[in-house]
Design brief:
Number of helices: 20
CATH architecture of the largest domain: 3-Layer(aba) Sandwich
CATH class of the largest domain: Alpha Beta
CATH topology of the largest domain: Rossmann fold
Helix content: 40-55%
Radius of gyration: 33 Å
Oligomer: single chain
Length: 416
């Protein structure tokens, strides 16, 4: 009994080799016919949609089948060599627990109480493109499944519902409600998003608003650029860009670039800006106290350059170097510190502190100084202890022509 799979494989030249040479398959159909025929040859049954597509294509080549002795191919259309393969075409987005996401796999204890968004759909290139628009910060996919899981966050909820709500998905009502709330917030940012609106601090707690007023002052064109510079430190998410430009118009070019940075890791090249220009910007932005990190192999050269720059603006008694080098090989470094009175104690009045890149001195930990900036003399990756110590400082400046690989994807390069 002739089956529809026989006809498909004949058209693809997998059967009846003696007559297949008389079949001509259009270029636009060739890949499809070959793919479906290879599938059935290997023993994988057709789905209902594939069956309908095969019937359609066979009809288009009916005259060629008749020419090769297949008088009535439609009689074979209901004859299947293999029962149709059932496809689960369910499409849904729902909230699940961590155990359902990882099933029998191991996962961290910290993830035990996480909530996830599970998105399920049969393979579709268009839906995969939509899926790629959801931030994959915490994402899990069990290989071979049609399920994609994202940790439930405001961003993932908004993106998931936004990109799939008009694609015939069954979506949990809780997710729809959350999305609607987020959409309302986005459409009415002035009511929810913390920021400076018409020179007024809005949508902060009273405690934070009072702290901002006491620390920076009442917002105005004279200090709005300071608010912008500290936006990540205080979680300030809205500014009027025209007001920012006015506030910055009398500031140095480098200061303007720092304030408008896209990352809190900055690479400033000596080819673009001098040390004096960097120090002037630190002064304009009131980024004291500042921690300057030196590398031991060129410590004297860089200490000399940076100290001479800061010396015009910062009193020597407010500057200190908290490390020494071996006298046998680096005596001149230690003498420079002594001769320039840079061996001062660390206290609440200290403005500039120099340390090496491989150790956090005990006096810093003891005095608990809250540094407002970190300046690396050369782009170097700090060790774990130092990295943890400076982790809460919202701006790190690397003064070098290039940076280490671990920073290249996140650093903001400032050029002329």
């Amino acid at each position: 009994m002739l089956t529809i799979e026989d006809l498909l494989e004949t058209l693809a030249s997998y059967r009846h080799k003696d007559i297949s040479k008389d079949f001509f398959v259009e270029r636009s159909d060739y890949s499809l016919i070959q793919s479906l025929a290879r599938q059935t040859i290997k023993g994988t049954a057709l789905t209902d949609r594939q069956l309908d597509l095969v019937k359609k294509k066979l009809i288009e080549y009916k005259h060629q089948f008749q020419k090769n002795g297949f008088d009535n191919i439609e009689e074979a259309f209901d004859n299947l060599r293999m029962p149709l393969r059932t496809i689960d075409r369910s499409k849904y987005i729902k909230i699940v627990n961590t155990s359902e996401v990882y099933q029998n796999q191991n996962y961290d204890d910290a993830q035990e109480n996480w909530k996830w968004i599970k998105i399920r759909f049969p393979f579709s290139k268009k839906l995969i493109l939509a899926l790629d628009k959801i931030p994959k910060i915490d994402y899990h996919h069990n290989k071979g499944s049609h399920e994609h899981c994202f940790k439930l966050t405001e961003k993932s909820v908004y993106a998931a519902v936004h990109h799939f709500k008009n694609k015939n998905f069954e979506i949990d009502n809780e997710l729809l409600d959350l999305h609607n709330e987020l959409e309302y917030i986005l459409e009415n940012k002035h009511m929810y998003v913390p920021g400076i609106y018409n020179m007024e601090i809005k949508n902060f707690s009273n405690t934070t608003a009072n702290h901002l007023m006491n620390t920076i002052g009442e917002p105005g064109l004279d200090n709005l650029y300071i608010y912008k510079d500290r936006k990540d430190l205080y979680g300030i998410h809205y500014f009027d860009n025209n007001d920012i430009d006015k506030s910055l118009q009398n500031k140095s070019i480098l200061t303007q670039k720092i304030v408008k940075r896209t990352s809190n890791y900055l690479l400033i090249s000596p080819d673009a800006f001098t040390i004096d220009q960097i120090i002037f910007s630190i002064e304009e932005l009131d980024r004291y106290p500042i921690l300057v990190i030196l590398q031991e192999h060129d410590a004297l050269d860089n200490l000399t350059k940076f100290h001479q720059g800061f010396d015009n603006l910062v009193e020597r008694e407010k500057t200190t170097v908290l490390f020494r080098l071996d006298n046998d090989t680096n005596k001149s470094f230690n003498e420079y510190i002594k001769n320039n009175n840079l061996n001062n104690k660390v206290d609440k009045n200290t403005k500039v502190v120099y340390i090496s890149n491989n150790k956090v001195p005990k006096p810093l930990v003891k005095e608990n100084i809250k540094f407002k900036a970190v300046l690396f003399a050369g782009s170097v990756r700090p060790n774990t202890t130092l990295a943890n110590y400076i982790d809460n400082i919202d701006i790190s400046i690397h003064y070098d022509t290039d940076t280490t690989p671990f920073l290249r994807t996140s650093i903001c390069k400032l050029v002329n």
